[in-house]
Design goal:
The structure is a single chain. This protein is α+β, with helices and mostly antiparallel strands. 28% of the residues lie in helices and 17% in strands. It has six helices and twelve strands. The strands form three sheets. Strands 3-2-1-5-8 form a five-stranded mixed sheet, covered by helices on one side. A hairpin with a 5-residue loop joins strand 11 and strand 12. Helix 1 packs antiparallel against helix 2, helix 4 packs across helix 6 and helix 5 packs across helix 6. Bound molecules: dinuclear copper ion (CUA). The site of dinuclear copper ion has 9 residues, from loops.
């Protein structure tokens, strides 16, 4: 399955829509480098021989510059460097501007494993199953240090940064099994922090989804945390009467803050509002929300974000059924047996590194929101 199908030895397969663009740019850079390296070295040898010392203390002819030559060797490098810049910009914009219809998968890095969570509730460790020919978006964060997702066959990689979400997307072009690496040194077992991406035909992928135990979907887990485990809903009510702002419909919209700033309610905003609530107070509300730092894991935060997002994407989101966020192509008629609550939903066999904090069972979570955090210190002055 891993036979090399490119014409260049040692190169990984080209298995995404980006691959040929990235390779072409790369070969272009190599060609330019080779051209100048060979040209300069050849000229060096030619000149050392042609202008070797033939007569002691000879003086060379004086040269007073040449407008034509100088213009030539200014313009040509300028044009070459602009082609490099433009080629790089095109590849970059393609890769880092995520299309809206991409299927979202949550990724949490952790020393030393990758955890993947599908919208339909399937969870995997160090393995990622995706359908061929479909845009896939990874929303990524880490529980500890900096990691970096790298999938060479897709020609994509991106840092996974503590305290924020990064996203990449890709569309696999042929079924197969491709290496997944951590590409940022992250400690002792960094080299072991990898796995496989399985690209499957849509039908096989649907089979895989239906044949895999799916736990709570991220939206369901988030709703559970929001309403029961963390008690967010006691302040953030469905109407405007709560002590905290209503969250339905905010996702993707601009929020006016007490500081006068306006921010867009994206994933990072929601995450920050849970962990550092006093830094971005919504206009008209008091800085009374306690921080949930240390009480929620990154996976739980991802679920909360997914839930709050779902409140904006469909009005009935509060009913939180697993079908409500099924962003797979309509052909996915899987029968998800949502085994509510049980956390036996790790798909991959390699759970031997002690993944104890499964979704939804946070032992030290929900003490009643008692201690108010000191109010506006550093509030919204960014
Ligand atoms: Cu994670 Cu290197």
């Amino acid at each position: 399955m891993q036979q090399n199908s490119t014409w260049v030895p040692l190169f990984p397969e080209q298995a995404s829509t980006f691959a040929s663009d990235v390779d072409n740019l790369y070969f272009y850079l190599i060609a330019i480098s080779a051209f100048f390296t060979i040209g300069i070295v050849a000229a060096l040898f030619y000149f050392t021989i042609r202008y070797r010392e033939r007569e002691k203390y000879a003086t060379g002819a004086e040269i007073h510059g040449s407008i034509g030559l100088e213009t030539f060797w200014s313009i040509v490098p300028f044009i070459i460097s602009m082609t490099i810049f433009l080629g790089g910009a095109v590849v970059y914009y393609n890769q880092y501007r995520v299309p809206a219809d991409a299927m979202e998968i949550y990724v949490v890095g952790k020393q030393w494993m990758w955890k993947f969570q599908h919208q339909t509730g399937q969870r995997e460790i160090n393995e990622l199953h995706i359908p061929v020919g479909q845009k896939v978006k990874l929303t990524m964060t880490t529980e500890d240090v900096l990691h970096d997702v790298s999938i060479p066959a897709f020609r994509t990689k991106a840092d996974v940064v503590p305290g924020r979400y990064t996203t990449i997307w890709f569309e696999a072009t042929k079924p197969g099994k491709y290496h997944l690496y951590c590409a940022e040194y992250c400690g002792l077992n960094h080299s072991g922090m990898g796995g496989w991406v399985y690209v499957m035909e849509q039908r096989d992928f649907d089979n895989w989804l239906s044949g895999t135990v799916s736990g709570q979907t991220p939206v369901e887990a988030g709703k559970d945390l929001f309403e029961n485990k963390l008690g967010c809903s006691s302040c953030h009510q469905q109407n405007d009467q709560g002590r905290g702002p209503k969250l339905a419909g905010i996702y993707g919209k601009d929020q006016k803050l007490a500081s006068g700033q306006t921010v867009t309610a994206n994933d990072d905003y929601i995450r920050n509002s849970i962990l550092n609530p006093t830094t971005q107070i919504v206009e008209g509300y008091q800085p009374i929300m306690p921080t949930f730092k240390g009480q929620v894991t990154e996976e739980q935060l991802v679920s909360l974000v997914a839930y709050i997002k779902s409140l904006s994407t469909n009005a009935a989101g509060a009913s939180g059924s697993s079908t409500s966020t099924n962003s797979m192509s309509g052909s996915a008629n899987q029968t998800n047996t949502t085994s509510g609550g049980s956390n036996t939903n790790l798909v991959a066999p390699r759970a031997d590194r002690g993944d104890s904090n499964s979704q939804g069972s946070n032992p030290n979570a929900p003490k009643q929101n008692s201690e108010p955090t000191n109010s506006n210190k550093g509030g919204g002055n960014r």
